[in-house]
Design brief:
- There is one protein chain.
- This protein is α+β, with helices and mostly antiparallel strands.
- The protein folds into 3 domains: about 1-35 and about 75-145 and about 325-340, Nucleotidyltransferase, domain 5, CATH 3.30.420; about 150-185 and about 265-320, ATPase, nucleotide binding domain (Nucleotidyltransferase, domain 5), CATH 3.30.420; about 190-260, Actin, Chain A, domain 4, CATH 3.90.640.10.
- The protein contains 13 helices and 18 strands.
- The strands form 5 sheets. Strands 3-2-1-9-10 form a 5-stranded mixed beta sheet, sandwiched between helices.
- Helix 5 packs across helix 12.
C-alpha cells in the first residue's frame, strides 16, 4: 500500500553520477539538473560533519575554504571515494527534483563506469537507496552514451562509442543490446587537468589550482595542431613557488598540448586496443559507421582529428556530448523492456 503511495508522489529519475558533474533526468520532463559533483562539508572540533553546500555552490568554494570547511569531490576515477558524502549528494539531488519532499521514493536508473567492481556497484546502489530510492537499476556508461547519441544498440551490428568523462574513458563496442568489448581507462578530464597543473609547476615554478587548470583546458587546450596552424594564448594567475607571491604569465596552446600529451595518448591507446580486439564482422560495421565520441572530453579541441589520424576511420563528435549518458539512461527509464535487457547485474 505505502509503495503505491510513494510511487504516486515520486517522479522516476535517471542519474548520470559523474566524477565531474551529476545530471538528473526526470521521466516526462528531460534533464532538469546539471551540477558539479562537489560537496562542501563543515567539520566541528569533535569531528562531526555537516553538509553545507552541494553542486555549483560547493564548487565555487573549491580551494577557497577555511580549515573547518572542506569542499570535496566524493567520486574519484568514476567510483565512490566517500560513501557518506555521496549519499548526502544523491539525497540532495533527489529531494531537489521533488521540491524537498522527504517522502518521495522514486525508481532510479544510475549510470556507472563499465570497469567498476561488484563491491563498488553495491556502494552506488546502497547510496541511492539510502538517499531515498525505491528501486535502483545500474547501467553501464558506454551503453547509456550509445543510446543517448542515437546509435542502434539493439540491432545486430557493431557500434563503437568512446565516452570521455571526468574520471574515466570508456571505449565500447556494442551489438544486440550488449557490450561485446569494453575497455575502461582512468585517463580522462581530471588527468588532463592534473597534467596541466604539473607541467606549469615544473616549467614555471607556478602553482595553479584545479579550476584554473580546467579553464586552461577549455580555453586553449587541444589534442592535435589546428589545420590552419593557428596558435592560441592565455593569461593565467597562480602562486610563484620561488618568491611565494601571486604571479601572472602567458602560456600557449602548443605548451598545453605538450602538457596533456600523456593522458591523451592513453585515451588514443585505449581506442587502438579496442579496434584490435573487435570481432572482424563488427569491425566491418565500424569501418562503415565510424567512431562516436561523447562526454566532456569529446569537446577537447581537435581530439576527433587525432583519433581520425590514428585509426584511419571516420570520427564523429556527438551532438550532445555532455548530456548523452544522462539522456541515454533517461530513454532506458522510459522503455522498461530495454532497461531490463541492459541493466547491469552484480
Amino acid at each position: 500500500m505505502f509503495d503505491s503511495i510513494f510511487r504516486f508522489f515520486s517522479k522516476d529519475l535517471a542519474i548520470d553520477l559523474g566524477t565531474a558533474n551529476t545530471l538528473v533526468y526526470v521521466k516526462g520532463k528531460g534533464i532538469v539538473s546539471d551540477e558539479p559533483s562537489v560537496v562542501a562539508v563543515h567539520r566541528d572540533s569533535r569531528g562531526a560533519t555537516k553538509v553545507i553546500a552541494v553542486g555549483a555552490e560547493a564548487k565555487n568554494m573549491l580551494g577557497k575554504t577555511p580549515g573547518n570547511i572542506v569542499a570535496t569531490r566524493p567520486l574519484r576515477d568514476g567510483v565512490i571515494a566517500d560513501f557518506e558524502i555521496t549519499e548526502a549528494m544523491l539525497k540532495y539531488f533527489i529531494q531537489k527534483v521533488h521540491n524537498r519532499k522527504s517522502y518521495a521514493r522514486p525508481r532510479i536508473v544510475i549510470s556507472v563506469p563499465s570497469g567498476i567492481t561488484p563491491v563498488e556497484k553495491r556502494a552506488v546502489k546502497e547510496s541511492a537507496e539510502s538517499g531515498g530510492a525505491r528501486e535502483v537499476y545500474l547501467i553501464e556508461q558506454p551503453m547509456a552514451a550509445a543510446i543517448g547519441v542515437g546509435l542502434p544498440v539493439t540491432e545486430p551490428s557493431g557500434n563503437m562509442i568512446v565516452d570521455i568523462g571526468g574520471g574515466t574513458t570508456e571505449v565500447a563496442v556494442i551489438s544486440l543490446a550488449g557490450i561485446v568489448y569494453c575497455n575502461s581507462v582512468r585517463a580522462a578530464g581530471d588527468k588532463i587537468d592534473e597534467a596541466i597543473v604539473q607541467y606549469i609547476k615544473r616549467k614555471y615554478n607556478l602553482l595553479i589550482g584545479e579550476r584554473t587548470a580546467e579553464m586552461i583546458k577549455i580555453g586553449i587546450g587541444s589534442a592535435y595542431p589546428d589545420p590552419d596552424g593557428k596558435e592560441h594564448t592565455m593569461e593565467i594567475k597562480g602562486r610563484d613557488l620561488v618568491g611565494g607571491v601571486p604571479k601572472t604569465l602567458e602560456i600557449s596552446s602548443t605548451e598545453v598540448r605538450q602538457a596533456i600529451a600523456e593522458p591523451v595518448k592513453a585515451i588514443v591507446e585505449a581506442v587502438r586496443i579496442a579496434l584490435e580486439r573487435t570481432p572482424p564482422e563488427l569491425a566491418g560495421d565500424i569501418v562503415d559507421k565510424g567512431i562516436v565520441i561523447s562526454g566532456g572530453g569529446a569537446m577537447l579541441r581537435n581530439l576527433d582529428l587525432l583519433l581520425k589520424d590514428v585509426s584511419r576511420l571516420p570520427v564523429l563528435i556527438a551532438e550532445n556530448p555532455l548530456t548523452a549518458v544522462c539522456e541515454g539512461a533517461g530513454q532506458a527509464l522510459d522503455e522498461m523492456s530495454l532497461l531490463k535487457e541492459i541493466a547491469s547485474d552484480f
